[in-house]
Amino acid sequence: MIAHEQHKLRSSELIPAQLKEHSVTIMYCSFTSITLVGHFFFATLPGYYCFVCCCMKQFFLHFVSKSKSLIVRQDYQSILEIYKEMNKTMIMMDNFLNLPIFISVVNILTSLFWYGYSFAFPPNADNVTGIFFAMGFLQYFVLLLITLIPAVSANQAAEMAREFVLSLPVWFPKQCNMIKVHVRRNFMHKTSLTLLEIYRINKSLLISAIGSLISYGILVGTLGRVQNINNEF
Fold it and tell me: TM spans, by residue (predicted)?
């Protein structure tokens, strides 16, 4: 692709010989700039989501850590109120971001498939094109990881906090029944970050996504080779 455009510029009779190398340099700079701007645009939302997920993870872990001191002070009301507010924050965050993140993940997976397939079965043997596809695949793979792994960690921290709250009746025997009623009424539903409120983000989702990419890549590559063999005959 890049080599083809480079060849067209250098073989063009409309461009003076002394300007051809400058034209090739400008083409490379323009192509690189457009690529970087596009990647930066698509990386903005995953970067923001990664930051928010890391914050939520730290909030839940800090909650579990500090709640132990509240248990010593027999202050279960504060524990329940703090957890209730954190639960609301998690739900609001998921309601606001689950659709954009779903679209972003679909875009990342599609780009990963295209870059990976183009790198494995390049349209030509140009080294620059191969490096471009490899770097594109690497960049989108990193985007996939920084999107899903922090969300997985945040969900694990949220589950840890939930289990801690569910264990509160053990720490407060005198208020055991009252705490059980409150917990069952408000916190029995698992709060987690999702994709489109359908897929809970966990380790299995990440592994399934990568496995699906590999499977479809092998399938499409095999079909392409079979078709090429049939065309030769």
Answer: 96-117, 129-152, 205-224
Q: Which residues of the chain have pLDDT under 70?
A: 1-42, 123-129, 221-233
CB-CB contact of 131 with 115 (8 Å): no
CB 112 within 8 A of CB 213: yes
Q: How far is CA 56 from CA 50, 93, 121, 146, in A?
A: 10, 10, 41, 15
The secondary structure of residue 16, as a DSSP letter, is: -
* Whole-prediction pTM: 0.77
Measured CA to CA, the distance from residue 185 to residue 52 in angstroms comes to 28
Q: How far apart are CA 99 and CA 89, in angstroms?
A: 17
| Residue 94 neighbours by CB under 8 Å, 6+ apart | 191, 192, 193, 194, 197
Query: Do the Cβ atoms of 172 and 76 come closer than 8 Å?
Result: yes
Q: How far apart are CA 56 and CA 228, in angstroms?
A: 51
Q: 210-223, pLDDT tens digit by residue?
A: 888 777 777 776 66
